[in-house]
Amino acid sequence: MDDCLVKAGQGNAVAQYNLGLMYEFGSGVSQDYKESVKWYGKPINQVIALVQLILGGMYDSGVIVPQDHKESVKWYLMAALRGNASAQNNLGVMYYDGQGVVQDYKEAVKWWRLAAEQGDSVSQFNLGLMYAKGQGVLQDYVMAYMYWDNVPIRSYEEEDVVIVKRSISKIMTDSQIAEAQKLAREWMRNHQ
């Protein structure tokens, strides 16, 4: 039960469904139909967001439907508001590039931050770039390094992460690097 509850709380759709079953039939918990309905309904939000993400991608790439960045942004936004990290990342890209929306670095940072807080490594990498360049945020090498320090190497191009961390560390003091690493550890504890 505890493992199922933890996974369900983390957004695992199968665990949410199983928790709904448990409450419906009183298996390992007190039977509670209201609680059952609550948990049965949660995976629906994820499925809807996934479909919205897919539609946004189709309009973004022009696969199956004619390319239409404004329509893509509409679908990405709907999925992003449902908490889909991939849609949040894609919306950040749209704002960064000015595709389907007016280019807005602050808005790109907002969406990348939301996705990064869910563990999206591409968004973490992009936030590091924004802090390094001072785009949409005040330039802050410590924050840039912190975000790059949190990018799981296996999930992103290792060479890119190593190159940017190496280049920025050349203009940082040892104490700034130590502060960035401390912040990275704290950030990971709060967001993973």
Structure description:
The chain is flat. Helix 8 (141-150) packs antiparallel against helix 9 (158-169). It has helices at 2-9, 13-25, 33-61, 69-81, 85-97, 105-116, 121-133, 141-150, 158-169, 174-191. It is 73% helix and 0% strand. It has a domain at 119-192. The protein is built from ten helices and no strands. The relative contact order is 0.07. By secondary structure, it is mainly α.
Short description:
By secondary structure, this protein is mainly α. The protein has a domain at 119-192.
Beta-strand percentage range: under 5%
What kind of oligomer do you see? single chain
How many strands? 0
Q: Compute the gyration radius: what is it?
A: 20 Å
The DSSP helix count reads 10
Helix-residue proportion: over 70%
Low-confidence stretches: none
Largest sheet: none
> What is the overall shape?
flat
Tell me the distance between the termini: 22 Å
- What class do helices, strands and sheet pairing give? mainly alpha
What string gives the helices and strands in order? HHHHHHHHHH
Q: Whole-number average pLDDT?
A: 90
What would the keywords be for this entry?
192 residues; 0% strand; mainly alpha
Write the layout of secondary structure elements.
Blueprint: H1 2-9, H2 13-25, H3 33-61, H4 69-81, H5 85-97, H6 105-116, H7 121-133, H8 141-150, H9 158-169, H10 174-191
Helix pairs in contact: 1-2, 2-3, 3-4, 4-5, 5-6, 6-7, 7-8, 8-9, 8-10
